[in-house]
């Protein structure tokens, strides 16, 4: 006998939520319609393995998708196929189905920051082929015109090539940052050098070893002996003297400083916040960027340095008023002490969260970052909110073609914790090997997901209690028992 499965769903895939069916990490696309055909022998004693064929709906092109029953969620020998239902998939998912079958399709989404290394159409296409689900534009860098061109290229990629790449806009936030380094791409600070950090505006060319700071109260807040961290500790300075609006610092840990890098300063082992804590979460520049994102119809807006749920609610109301037909999701970036203090209410108000470990590691002791990440992911799982793990996943691949084994272990742990997405920052924006970095994320994600499925097939499922009444609890127990029976049946069949 033979059975056929025609696959078709709406163009917007959705994740179920208690109060919303907003999609996550996918966007509208125009992919190819495929049909899957499962053929099994009518002879029950036949030793021939079932084969899954893929065809192009009557065009004559076909090929074997899989020849092993382990590739299905349910064995093809059971009557699970429908003759009238179909599902629409993008080009990458179609390739994964052909290669690995249904059970091995990657669940972990991949986010790539777009920068000078990946902004052209061909480079974006290479990332899409490699598994990029979301293109992130960082408003800390580049002009709105530049970002607009990137958005147009991503949309063209989806329309012409059948991909489903969403667009996420990341706001700059109101934290203390360095200036643009006079147009230079970077500046190297050597051990023992004296640098000046100033709130003054300098005529070009600016004095040597001088950096602008965007916070007017910077010189008033710091004291001699404070430790100044650039970009979460990539470069360190010691404050040695204050002269009016200028702060003289000696480099204690040399390194490369990049434009618009975040600045934090510590005193007696604690983060100095003071006036910095009074800065608004969304700056005037951020509001202009948000207007730009709404006009361009981005899929996600990630808000930096979120301090409370009120900020998220206000932004959602603003988006709804500015564009009533928009479906823009708001992602809260957890990267400050204030975020951790109000974590659950922030995540509840948001459409998703991002574990921004770079800036978070500049505000809490480094040894606390892993536990903070696990806690954020767990709360997102409990509240049924998508979560992205970001920052320095494969930092070494900015310069080198292979990652360190510690980085691979870090990526594996994020997938094992069941993060919904992983994000590349400098690796894809300005790195020398963006395609290879993405390939590492994809291969590690697929491997850990496979290991997870194999392990979970032999473990009892622990489901959170949702019901509030006695009747709801009975319904939960019935559903839990049915799920466990299904899992054990699947194990026996496989």
Automatic annotation (TrEMBL):
* Cofactor(s), names only, from the UniProt record: Mg(2+); K(+)
Pathway, per record: Carbohydrate degradation; glycolysis; pyruvate from D-glyceraldehyde 3-phosphate: step 5/5
GO cellular component terms, A-Z: chloroplast stroma
- What superkingdom does the record give? Eukaryota
Q: Which UniProt keywords apply?
A: ATP-binding, Glycolysis, Kinase, Magnesium, Metal-binding, Nucleotide-binding, Pyruvate, Transferase
**What spans are recorded as compositionally biased (Polar residues)?**
51-71
The cross-references to InterPro entries, in alphabetical order and at most eight, read: Pyr_Knase, Pyrv/PenolPyrv_kinase-like_dom, Pyrv_kinase-like_dom_sf, Pyrv_Knase-like_insert_dom_sf, Pyrv_Knase_AS, Pyrv_Knase_brl, Pyrv_Knase_C_sf, Pyrv_Knase_insert_dom_sf
Q: Where is this region: Disordered?
A: 38-85
Q: Does the keyword Nuclease apply?
A: no
Task: Tell me what reaction this enzyme catalyses.
Answer: pyruvate + ATP = phosphoenolpyruvate + ADP + H(+)
Instruction: Mark out the compositionally biased spans (Low complexity).
Output: 39-50
MF terms from GO for this chain are: ATP binding; kinase activity; magnesium ion binding; potassium ion binding; pyruvate kinase activity
Gene3D superfamilies annotated for this entry? Phosphoenolpyruvate-binding domains, PK beta-barrel domain-like, Pyruvate kinase, C-terminal domain
Per UniProt, residues of the Pyruvate kinase barrel domain are 106-437
Enzyme Commission numbers on file: 2.7.1.40
Q: PANTHER family recorded for this chain?
A: PYRUVATE KINASE
Family, per entry = Belongs to the pyruvate kinase family.
Name of the protein in its database record: Pyruvate kinase
Q: What is the species listed in this Swiss-Prot or TrEMBL entry? A: Salix brachista
**Upper taxonomic lineage:** Eukaryota, Viridiplantae, Streptophyta, Embryophyta, Tracheophyta
């Amino acid at each position: 006998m033979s059975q056929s499965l025609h696959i078709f769903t709406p163009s917007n895939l959705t994740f179920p939520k208690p109060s919303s069916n907003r999609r996550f990490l996918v966007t509208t696309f125009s992919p190819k319609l495929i049909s899957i055909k499962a053929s099994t022998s009518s002879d029950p004693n036949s030793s021939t393995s079932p084969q899954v064929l893929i065809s192009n709906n009557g065009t004559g092109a076909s090929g074997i998708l899989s020849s092993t029953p382990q590739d299905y969620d349910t064995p093809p020998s059971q009557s699970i196929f429908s003759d009238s239902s179909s599902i629409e998939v993008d080009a990458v998912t179609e390739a994964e189905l052909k290669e690995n079958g249904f059970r091995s399709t990657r669940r972990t989404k991949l986010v790539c920051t777009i920068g000078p290394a990946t902004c052209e159409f061909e480079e974006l296409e290479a990332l899409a082929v490699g598994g990029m689900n979301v293109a992130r534009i960082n408003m800390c860098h580049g002009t709105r015109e530049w970002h607009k061109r990137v958005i147009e290229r991503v949309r063209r990629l989806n329309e012409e090539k059948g991909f489903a790449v969403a667009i996420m806009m990341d706001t700059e936030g109101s934290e203390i940052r360095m200036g643009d380094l006079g147009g230079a791409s970077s500046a190297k600070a050597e051990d023992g050098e004296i640098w000046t950090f100033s709130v003054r505006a300098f005529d070009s060319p600016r004095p040597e070893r001088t950096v602008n700071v965007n916070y007017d109260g910077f010189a008033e807040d710091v004291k001699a002996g404070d430790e100044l961290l650039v970009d979460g500790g990539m470069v360190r300075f010691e404050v040695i003297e204050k002269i009016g609006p200028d702060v003289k610092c000696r480099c204690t840990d040399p390194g490369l400083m990049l434009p618009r890098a975040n600045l934090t300063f510590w005193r007696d082992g604690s983060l100095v916040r003071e006036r910095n804590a009074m800065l608004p979460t969304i700056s005037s520049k951020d509001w202009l960027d948000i207007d730009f994102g709404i006009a361009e119809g981005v899929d996600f807006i990630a808000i930096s340095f979120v301090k409370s749920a009120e900020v998220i609610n206000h932004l959602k109301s603003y988006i709804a008023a500015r564009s009533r037909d928009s479906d823009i999701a708001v992602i809260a970036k957890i990267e400050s002490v204030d975020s951790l203090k109000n974590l659950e209410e922030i995540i509840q108000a948001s459409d998703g969260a991002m574990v921004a470990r770079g800036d978070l590691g500049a505000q809490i002791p480094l040894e606390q970052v892993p536990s903070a990440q696990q806690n954020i992911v767990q709360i997102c799982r409990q509240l049924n909110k998508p979560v992205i793990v970001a920052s320095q996943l494969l930092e070494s691949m900015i310069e080198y073609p292979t990652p360190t084994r510690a980085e691979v272990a870090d990526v594996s742990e994020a997938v094992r914790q069941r993060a919904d997405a992983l994000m590349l920052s400098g690796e894809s924006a300005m790195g020398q090997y963006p395609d290879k970095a993405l390939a590492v994320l994809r291969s590690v994600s697929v491997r850990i997901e496979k290991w997870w499925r194999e392990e979970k097939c032999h473990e009892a499922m622990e489901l959170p209690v949702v019901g509030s009444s006695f009747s709801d609890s009975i319904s939960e127990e019935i559903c839990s028992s049915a799920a466990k029976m299904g899992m054990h049946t699947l194990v026996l069949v496989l």
